[in-house]
């Protein structure tokens, strides 16, 4: 009798273990933050529902090492981003979490906010930092769809991504009537660098003036610096020499001379000596001692 009882107890234990293992996948599918927390922050402002905001933020960090949690949480955050009845603070908070842990799945919802006057900046920051190519494409597409100061912000984000595929669109913006936007496009091209960006900047700077000329000068020098860093000294030298021409502004010539010296060789040293001998005022104006 005792033996039978013992065997029956072991069988019961085995059944319990098997049931627990079978239930594990279902439990994993329910990973995420309780929907009640999202409902609590949905209409909250900064300083309200602090415990719920913190719980979701903690989950976002934890999701970076947990694919199932990440997928579930991302879905919840996408819902909050697209909820037009949710508070500004809640939607901005959702974008901030997606900036850290979002995948291609969240790109359409975040990109839809790029034209939004209040939420555009946080949406583009999120897309700017996502490694997936879908985020880059969303920002490129926005160059033709977004207007005003929101467009300038998108241009800045495209520049931060160093997106070579965006160069044609940025080059087109150089020719527009908005001087601030054109200058922003020039800066973005300088950060992106490469042959096409350098060519576009060379074409616009000769006829540009004011803010655009200053931005184009700086951006073209960035292109030269990028060539130099990549070991393409001939391309770097060509830009530095063009910007060292006598007609260029003193501060531009000073930067170009620095580049020519960095290219190396006796020619750079000879240029320094020539500048010191022929134009000491040039160096005094630059603050040299």
Q: Which shape, going by the Cα principal axes?
A: elongated
What is the total tally of β strands? 0
State the distance separating the first and last CA atoms: 104 Å
Helix percent reads over 70%
Q: What value does the average pLDDT take?
A: 87
Largest sheet: none
Strand fraction equals under 5%
Poorly predicted ranges:
1-8, 10-30
Oligomer: single chain
Any idea what the radius of gyration is? 29 Å
Total DSSP helices = 17
The helix-and-strand class reads mainly alpha
The ordered H/E elements are HHHHHHHHHHHHHHHHH
Describe the structure.
The chain is mostly helical and 289 residues long. It has a domain at 21-102. 73% of the residues lie in helices and 0% in strands. The longest helix is centred in the first third of the chain and has 28 residues, at 2-29. 37% of the residues are buried. The model is unreliable at 1-8 and 10-30 (pLDDT under 50).
């Amino acid at each position: 009798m005792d033996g039978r009882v013992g065997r029956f107890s072991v069988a019961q234990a085995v059944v319990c273990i098997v049931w627990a293992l079978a239930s594990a996948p279902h439990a994993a599918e329910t990973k995420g933050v309780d929907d009640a927390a999202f409902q609590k922050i949905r209409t909250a402002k900064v300083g309200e529902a602090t415990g719920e905001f913190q719980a979701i933020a903690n989950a976002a960090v934890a999701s970076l090492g947990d694919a199932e949690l990440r997928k579930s949480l991302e879905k919840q955050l996408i819902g909050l981003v697209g909820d037009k009845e949710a508070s500004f603070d809640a939607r901005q908070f959702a974008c901030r979490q997606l900036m850290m842990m979002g995948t291609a799945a969240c790109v359409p919802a975040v990109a839809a906010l790029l034209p939004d006057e209040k939420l555009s900046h946080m949406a583009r920051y999120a897309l700017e930092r996502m490694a997936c190519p879908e985020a880059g494409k969303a920002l490129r597409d926005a160059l033709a769809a977004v207007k005003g100061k929101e467009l300038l912000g998108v241009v800045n984000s495209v520049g931060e991504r160093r997106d070579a595929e965006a160069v044609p669109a940025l080059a087109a913006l150089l020719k527009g009537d908005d001087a601030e936007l054109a200058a922003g496009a020039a800066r973005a091209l300088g950060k992106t660098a490469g042959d096409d960006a350098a060519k576009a900047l060379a074409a616009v700077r000769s006829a540009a003036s004011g803010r655009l000329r200053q931005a184009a000068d700086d951006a073209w020098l960035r292109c030269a610096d990028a060539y130099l860093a990549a070991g393409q000294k001939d391309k770097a030298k060509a830009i530095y020499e063009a910007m060292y021409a006598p007609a260029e502004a003193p501060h531009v010539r000073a930067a170009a001379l620095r580049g020519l010296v960095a290219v190396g060789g006796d020619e750079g040293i000879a240029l320094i000596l020539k500048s010191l001998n022929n134009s000491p005022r040039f160096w005094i104006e630059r603050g040299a001692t």
